[in-house]
Design brief:
Structural class: alpha/beta
Distance between the termini: 34 Å
Strand content: 5-15%
Number of strands: 13
Largest sheet: 9 strands, parallel
C-alpha cells in the first residue's frame, strides 16, 4: 500500500467541546506508520505506550491502595506463569490456571467487546504491547455484524455463524501475537439461549477433532429470573459445558444501563447490589458439577456505559464482604474462594477498579471506552487529511492529484485500531495486567 505523504498541516476544528480532547497524540504517526509493525511486536514485551486519557486525580486513600496493590503485583508476578498457559487461545485447565494466576498476582484481564477483525486485532496488538492476556468477547449482536447485517437472523443463525467465524479468525492468528487469548461470549439472557446452544454445538464438534472447545467460555445472564431458576439453568448448562472443558460465567443481580440489546436503564436500584447469601447459594450449587468451572458477575452497582460523575455508585466492598462470608462457610483456609468478574468497567474510577481486584476480580469488561477510542482514531484521521478526502481527484497539492492513498479504507481503520489499542494499554495498566507473562 502506498504511504501517503505528509500534507500541509490542516486540522479541522472539533465540532463539539468534548471532541477537542481527541487522541491526536496517538495519531501523530498517522498513515506514515500505519502499516509498520512496532519493534518487538510479536511476543516481545515493550513498555506500555502513553495513555490516551490521563487518569483522574485520586485521593490519598486511593494512592495508598494503589501503591500497595502495585507492590504486591510486582512481587507476585515474579512467580512463574503456569506451564499450561501458552500463546494462543487458552481453554480448559489452562484457563483455570490463568485465572488462578491472575487472582494470586492481583491483576485482572481486560474483557473487550469486539465487532469485527479490526477490533479483534486491536485487542491482540494491545496485549502484545502491554505483556499480558486478553479476553476477546463476542456479543450476540457483534456476531451478527461479523456475519453481515444483510443476512436474516432467524433462529440466531447469523449471530452463531458470525461468532464462529470470529473465533476461527482469532485461532488462526493469536499465536503470532505471542500472548494468551481467552475466547468468550457476553450477556445471554433467557430468550437468547438458542444462540448459546448453537455455539455449544460448535464447541462439541471442535472438541471431537481438536480435544478442546472452540470457545474458552460463555456467559449466561439470567439475572432477570428468580435466583433459583437462574442457578438451575446455569447448572444445567455447566453440566454440558464441563464435558468439553468450557468455563461458565454467570450473573447475579443486574448490571444497569444498556448494552447491545440488553436494556436495564429502568431497573430498581436495589437489584444492582448482590447479597453474600445469593453468591453462597450459587457457589454451592455450581460446585456440585463434576469438572465444572465458573466465574460470577455479582453486581455491586455496575452500570453499562459512561455517565457523569455521581450517577454511578459502585460498592466493591460488597465483593470483599462476600468473599469473607463464603470463606468462613468453607472453613477459612481460602480467603478468596470466588472468581469474580467486573461488568460495566468503562468510566470506573481507578480506586474502585483496584479495590475490586483486591476482592478477587479476575476480569473486567470494557466496551464503551474502546468504542469511543476507535471512533476517535477514525475522526482524527479524517481531521488530519480532510482536504484529501473530498473527492477522488484534487487536493491542496494540485487539482489533478489523486487521493486514493488517503481514502483507502485500511488507512482510517488502522487509525481506529491504533487508538483502540492505546486505550486498552491504559486499561491494562489500571488492571495491573502489564508485564505479567
Amino acid at each position: 500500500l502506498p504511504i501517503p505523504p505528509s500534507p500541509p498541516i490542516r486540522v479541522a476544528p472539533a465540532p463539539h467541546a468534548m471532541l477537542r480532547k481527541v487522541v491526536l497524540a496517538g495519531l501523530a504517526a498517522t498513515a506514515v506508520d500505519a502499516f509498520t509493525a512496532p519493534t518487538g511486536f510479536f511476543g516481545t514485551r515493550q513498555a506500555p505506550a502513553a495513555k490516551i486519557n490521563s487518569v483522574k486525580p485520586v485521593s490519598a486513600r486511593t494512592q495508598r491502595v494503589n501503591g500497595a496493590a502495585s507492590l504486591r503485583a510486582a512481587e507476585a508476578t515474579k512467580n512463574k506463569l503456569p506451564a499450561s498457559v501458552k500463546p494462543g487461545v487458552v481453554t480448559g485447565q489452562a484457563l483455570v490456571d490463568l485465572l488462578k494466576y491472575a487472582k494470586e498476582n492481583n491483576f485482572a484481564i481486560p474483557g473487550v467487546n469486539i465487532v469485527g477483525s479490526n477490533s479483534i486485532n486491536a485487542c491482540m496488538e494491545a496485549a502484545a504491547k502491554y505483556g499480558g492476556p486478553i479476553m476477546v468477547t463476542f456479543s450476540k449482536g457483534g456476531g451478527q455484524f461479523i456475519a453481515g447485517k444483510s443476512l436474516p437472523n432467524k433462529n440466531d443463525e447469523a449471530s452463531i455463524a458470525g461468532c464462529i467465524a470470529g473465533a476461527l479468525h482469532v485461532r488462526a492468528v493469536a499465536k503470532q501475537y505471542g500472548i494468551p487469548v481467552v475466547l468468550h461470549t457476553d450477556h445471554c439472557q433467557k430468550a437468547w439461549l438458542p444462540w448459546i446452544d448453537g455455539l455449544m454445538a460448535a464447541n462439541e464438534d471442535y472438541y471431537k477433532t481438536h480435544g478442546e472447545p472452540l470457545f474458552s467460555s460463555h456467559m449466561l445472564d439470567l439475572s432477570e429470573e428468580p435466583l433459583e431458576e437462574n442457578v438451575e439453568i446455569c447448572k444445567k448448562y455447566l453440566e454440558r459445558m464441563a464435558k468439553c472443558n468450557v468455563l461458565l460465567e454467570m450473573e447475579l443481580g443486574v448490571t444497569g444501563g444498556e448494552e447491545d440489546g440488553v436494556d436495564n436503564t429502568g431497573v430498581d436500584s436495589a437489584r444492582l447490589y448482590t447479597q453474600p447469601e445469593e453468591v453462597w447459594y450459587t457457589y454451592q450449587e455450581l460446585s456440585k458439577v463434576p469438572n465444572g468451572h465458573f466465574t460470577i458477575a455479582a453486581s455491586f452497582g455496575n452500570v453499562h456505559g459512561v455517565y457523569a460523575p455521581g450517577n454511578v455508585d459502585l460498592k466493591p466492598v460488597i465483593l470483599h464482604n462476600t468473599q469473607k462470608y463464603i470463606s468462613e462457610k468453607l472453613g477459612g483456609k481460602d480467603k478468596k474462594p470466588v472468581n469474580f468478574v467486573f461488568h460495566g468497567g468503562s468510566g470506573s474510577s481507578l480506586e474502585d477498579i483496584r479495590y475490586a481486584i483486591e476482592a478477587g476480580v479476575i476480569k473486567m469488561n470494557i466496551d464503551t471506552d474502546t468504542q469511543w477510542a476507535f471512533w476517535d482514531g477514525v475522526r482524527g484521521y479524517e481531521a488530519k487529511y480532510h482536504d484529501y478526502l473530498q473527492g477522488q481527484i484534487g487536493n491542496p497539492e494540485g487539482a489533478t492529484k489523486p487521493n486514493k492513498k488517503y481514502y483507502d479504507p485500511r488507512m482510517m481503520l488502522r487509525a481506529g485500531e491504533e487508538a483502540m489499542a492505546k486505550r486498552l494499554i491504559q486499561a491494562a495498566e489500571d488492571l495491573n495486567c502489564v508485564n505479567v507473562l
